[in-house]
Design goal:
By secondary structure, the chain is of the alpha/beta class. It is 46% helix and 11% strand. Helix 12 links the parallel strand 7 and strand 8. Helix 7 runs antiparallel to helix 9. It binds iron/sulfur cluster (SF4). The site of iron/sulfur cluster (SF4) has 12 residues, from helix 3, helix 4 and helix 12.
Length: 387
């Protein structure tokens, strides 16, 4: 298999690695957000799989359980679940990250599991919405509870040594993703935003031993300049806002000669943050939970952390400099309140105070009116070229 075949894992829910895993009677646990302690699932010998809406075509089934005013990304995932496309999951873990995702727990508990011959194991994590010492200790308690529930419900032993080993594997995975991120921000980037998203999606759909092997091969591939040449770049863009798991959306943004060199999306670059976003001073290096708390809580770039806005702004400004950004595309899924509020603040600060040009887009998960979007992007690029 060539290095770039790994990118194709983003176009299917069932990739070759997952299929083999299931054939070997091993378990898969689904999750929605970056704030889920995948490391504990991995240490328990299971495959943590980030749920996405890949290839969903409509909301016909999901419309019976979610309203017109719900996030269309979550609704698309529900549609796929109701079409039985996620029948490979043995369990799912959900947190109070946003109300739409939170709702999926109730839907599973009161509807899907009740009507199913094979109900899946359900786990819930309650996570804080502020950065502070209490929040850190709260997350630690939740991790312990989650580990106990996982062991009890699925009859699996998880020892501390396994968690330490998994932490090393995950740290290595983040380092590898960061190396690939560096190829994006070169004066002549070696990969575009579409391919980076595909890599990120594939990375969240396999066990990390497998992912690390594939990422190492990809790094060699880019080092040896084997990728397609990216020439005549009209503008270097940063993409911010709601979750994106569909590379076709970024393809539209890059269609006119722009390139997305940085994105800070939860499905993409947030995985490889270089420096801690927020840090707890009384760090206990012996505690196997601490690196996990740092990743899912201290490095949580999501606007659900209410007192984290200035930290997020600092990181955006730092990435603008590092990646030599010409303009920002802020996008929001309809009814995504978290990114709705955050985007408004970013627009005001970055455009009015920092002078960085911004294009703001509201969208649905299913790509409908792409012609209008293309026209808006083209007009934005012309504006960037004039400035
Ligand atoms: S895009 Fe917004 S509303 Fe949808 S799941 Fe993410 S945070 Fe929640």
């Amino acid at each position: 298999m060539s290095a770039t075949n790994f990118l194709d894992f983003s176009s299917l829910l069932r990739n070759a690695h997952l299929t083999e895993w299931i054939q070997n009677h091993k378990k898969v646990i689904g999750f929605y957000c970056s704030s889920i302690p995948e490391e504990i699932i991995h240490a328990a010998g299971m495959l943590p799989y980030r749920i996405r809406a890949t290839n969903n075509l409509n909301y016909n089934l999901a419309d019976s359980l979610l309203s017109q005013f719900n996030c269309s990304y979550v609704k698309s995932t529900l549609n796929l679940i109701m079409e039985d496309k996620y029948n490979f999951l043995n369990g799912i873990v959900i947190a109070n990250t946003c109300d739409h995702v939170r709702r999926m727990y109730d839907i599973y508990k009161h509807k899907l599991n009740k009507n199913s011959q094979n109900p899946i194991a359900l786990f819930f994590l309650s996570l804080p919405h502020l950065f502070d010492e209490n929040g850190w200790l709260w997350v630690r308690e939740e991790l312990k509870l989650f580990q106990e529930q996982l062991s009890r419900n699925l009859n699996i032993e998880i020892d501390e040594r396994k968690i330490q080993e998994t932490n090393h594997l995950y740290k290595r995975n983040q380092e590898l993703i960061r190396k690939i991120m560096e190829f994006r921000i070169l004066p002549e980037p070696k990969l575009n935003g579409v391919d980076f998203l595909k890599i990120s999606i594939a990375n969240s759909s396999v066990r990390k031993e497998y992912a690390n092997e594939k990422l190492e091969q990809l790094i060699m591939y880019y080092q040896q300049d084997e990728g397609p040449k990216i020439e005549n770049v009209r503008a270097r863009l940063m993409l911010l806002g709601s979750s994106i798991d569909n590379p076709a959306f970024i393809q539209i943004l890059e269609h006119h000669g722009a390139i997305v060199v940085s994105d800070l999306l939860c499905t993409s670059e947030r995985w490889g943050l270089k420096d801690p976003l927020w840090h707890y001073d009384n760090w206990n290096s012996e505690d196997p939970y601490y690196p996990i708390i740092q990743r899912i809580y201290g490095d949580c770039f999501c606007p659900r952390i209410m007192n984290g806005h200035s930290l997020r702004m600092n990181l955006i400004k730092q990435r603008i400099k590092e990646a030599k950004i010409d303009g920002i595309i802020l996008q929001r899924l309809e009814f995504c309140d978290l990114h709705g509020c955050e985007n408004m603040l970013i627009q005001q600060e970055m455009e009015e105070i920092n002078g960085t040009p911004i294009l703001s887009i509201d969208r649905e998960y299913l790509l409908g009116d792409t012609g209008r979007l293309r026209t808006r992007v083209e007009a934005f690029l012309e504006r960037l070229e004039r400035s």
